[in-house]
Design goal:
Helix content is 30%, strand content 21%. The protein has 365 residues and is an alpha+beta fold.
Length: 365
């Protein structure tokens, strides 16, 4: 006897297809971005238009409030920052690419690296900060070649270093350093660890496997512009130590206007709570309404120094942007929240300008 397969009713088939399509749609649909996601995604176009019925000033205030709220958000979940985008650059000529490849592959010999202070070598190896390493050494927990180390002792590549009896894998500055220019946005913190767990500029930088980024100076929470990061602690020290008097240039917008006499005073020097301060150069850049722009240059970087110098004359800084640090200038194409990594030839030029060796160490004169 011939049997026939029972057919499923057409309505049931349609219902099954609808359910399958709904499940597929739910799997492929992406969640809508949150306010924190939009902030941490990086650059917001300058020509972005405010919402209908919102004034430009109100839109700016709202954006600053959103940035502050996002920075206050704890790490994890919606507060996790996305990595900063790299500024796109055209590839150089074949000769330039070949030279950069050679510099990237170059390694110094043990004799060229020489000796290094133990706490500095441990910090460069990623064990902890230099201060933490000094505390470990002072506590007698670090040994070199079987002997308890003392502060100030120097080590070389052939030495065996142990902490609490466990051998440490040491990393050495035997290659060309890396340098990154980052366009800091207002509302970002320049610190490696924030007690409140807020997002920092270090959360935005590309990760390193064999070293760590060192910030060349700092910028306040509400200050934007050029931030420099490098893997060379010596380069960072050379650019920030007061005795080298490295120039910092800022674009400043203030509510009000300086008189000619006040500009002359700022050039000559004024006295702040923490000592004398002066601009080596100050130039009016025009303005609109009550807002006026100035370009200023000074050779130190004390906390909120530029703002306090204008506040000395009763003027409030409404926007502050660093555009140059030493020989390094903020690229015009580098958008807020983006970074540009110097090529090997550019890094080598910076090292020569700073009178440092290829690996960032000071030259012997």
């Amino acid at each position: 006897m011939k049997t026939t397969r029972a057919r499923r009713p057409q309505p049931a088939i349609r219902e099954q297809k609808a359910a399958d399509q709904q499940r597929a749609g739910l799997k492929s649909r992406k969640p809508a971005p949150s306010a924190a996601d939009e902030f941490t995604s990086g650059y917001k176009p300058r020509d972005a238009k405010p919402a209908p019925g919102t004034s430009p000033r109100a839109a700016t205030t709202t954006g600053a409030a959103a940035a502050a709220a996002a920075a206050e958000a704890p790490r994890g979940g919606r507060g996790v920052a996305t990595k900063a985008k790299r500024m796109k650059m055209r590839a150089g000529s074949q000769h330039e690419v070949a030279v950069q490849k050679q510099l990237r592959a170059k390694r110094l010999t043990s004799a060229q690296v020489g000796e290094e202070r133990l706490q500095k070598a441990l910090a460069f190896s990623g064990i902890g900060s230099r201060r933490d390493m000094e505390e470990l050494i002072a506590a007698g927990r670090v040994s070199v070649n079987g002997k308890i180390a003392e502060l100030g002792v120097k080590v070389k590549q052939a030495d065996e270093v142990r902490i609490d009896g466990k051998r440490v894998t040491m990393r050495w500055q035997d290659r060309l350093a890396r340098v990154v220019l980052y366009h800091k946005q207002e509302g970002e913190l320049v610190t490696r660890d924030d007690p409140q767990g807020r997002l920092t500029v270090f959360d935005r930088l590309p990760r390193l496997s064999s070293s760590k980024w060192v910030a060349v100076g700092r910028l306040d929470f509400n200050t934007s512009g050029l931030l420099i990061f490098t893997t060379s602690g010596d380069l960072a020290n050379r650019m920030t130590h007061p005795r080298f008097e490295m120039e910092r240039e800022y674009a400043v917008r203030v509510l009000g206007e300086l008189t000619d006499e006040q500009i002359a005073e700022l050039r000559k020097g004024i006295t702040l709570d923490d000592g004398p301060a002066k601009f080596t150069h100050i130039e009016a850049q025009g303005g609109e309404g009550m807002n006026h722009w100035y370009r200023v240059v000074l050779k130190e970087g004390r906390n909120r120094e530029v703002r306090r110098m204008f506040e000395h004359f009763g003027l409030t800084v409404s926007r502050l942007m660093r555009v140059r640090f030493g020989a390094l200038t903020l690229p015009g194409r580098l958008k807020r929240g983006q970074f540009y990594e110097l090529s090997e030839t550019e890094v080598l030029a910076v090292m020569k300008w700073a009178d440092l060796k290829l690996n960032g160490e000071a030259k012997d004169h």
